[in-house]
UniProtKB/TrEMBL annotation:
Molecular functions per Gene Ontology: cysteine desulfurase activity; pyridoxal phosphate binding
General function of this protein: Catalyzes the removal of elemental sulfur and selenium atoms from L-cysteine, L-cystine, L-selenocysteine, and L-selenocystine to produce L-alanine.
Protein keywords: Pyridoxal phosphate, Transferase
One GO process term, biological-process aspect: cysteine metabolic process
Organism this protein belongs to: Rhodobacter xanthinilyticus
Keyword Transferase: yes
Aminotransferase class V domain boundaries: 24-394
Record-linked CDD domains: SufS_like (cd06453)
Catalytic activity: (sulfur carrier)-H + L-cysteine = (sulfur carrier)-SH + L-alanine
UniProt-recorded name of the protein: Cysteine desulfurase
Homology family: Belongs to the class-V pyridoxal-phosphate-dependent aminotransferase family. Csd subfamily.
Amino acid sequence: MYDVTQIRAEFPILAQKVNGRALVYLDNGASAQKPRAVIDAMTRFYEEDYANVHRGLHHLSTVATEAYEGVRGKIARFLNAPSEEHIVFTTGSTEGINLVSYAWAAPRLEAGDEIVLSVMEHHANIVPWHFLRERQGVVLKWVEPEADGALDPARVLEAIGPRTKLVAVTHMSNVLGTLVDVAAITRGAHEKGVPVLVDGSQAAVHMPVDVAAIGCDFYAITGHKLYGPSGSGALYIRPERMAEMRPFLGGGDMIDTVTREAVSYAKPPMRFEAGTPGIVQQVGLGVAIDYLTGLGMANIEAHEQSLRAYAEERFRGLNWLNIQGNAPKKGAIFSMTLDGPAHAHDLSTILDKRGIAVRAGSHCAMPLMQWLGVSATARASFGLYNTREEVDALVSGLELCHELLC
């Protein structure tokens, strides 16, 4: 049984008050809070088990290495990757996507080659490709969503031309909550010989993810949204693509031998992991994945979809509230504006006075803001510990915003 009251008790920060009111944390799309299990495990690791990994034969180094490397298998199982050898540790999705840009795309794309993107992408899945546009003359081809915020796979596939070398697309929009059929996009792109990168930053925390079923070539996740620590994450890479990639960063761990005249590199995935890593961060991510797996991703998805349905029901009574994006398949993410001159920052400030944490701004998605015709939105993004009572608190806060601003 999914007991949200018990789950909330496992997140210490949720017990605090903000401005004299119980905290209602609805900024999970930016970063999720951490359960006691993650906090305690990281503290214990620093107190009892910390040492550098891969480099020592002494007891602590062995213990630390086993704990650190054990996370690779947890991530592989979490994503249903064929092997942990397909998992590269990163500091998050941003580094993972930049890794693909530098290590795979840059050596093989030439001026005039194309990358297909959706307008819904986070800047982390835009700016690395702009680097290639600026430096190598690569062309970015943009696909717009439907009026309701859905992304039609057929439109993405229609954008693929003879010089398209990559499709880079989000699995779930961090602004609209739109769930993208990345499996259909991957199937169609592969039929045309084009690899697919999926930004899984939002989707992986809200639903089960199966990269084997999706069939994508790259899938990026970030730990801080998965109820783990910042500075942790991973990139799944198909073995065919791994074999095509050059090293990203140079230093310790990613080498085989170094001489004055030459260098040879370790086998993947170590080839793409240079220097002393975020050891404790990745251990914390492993504990967070254990926590999510224990709850069951399907159970988390069902809970959040119930919250989404309830929120939509409550929002229908607010005829002055504009929800940006209402795709049939979406997560419990709502980007909002009010009729009239009220700015998203005004909404966020007023809600904060009532202890309600939402995001305000462009959400690192400026092309999408331009497409929506707004400068900013206030975003409420729900997680596994949120409740219907918190939906009610949000609605009450929005009613106050309307009263004060409109």
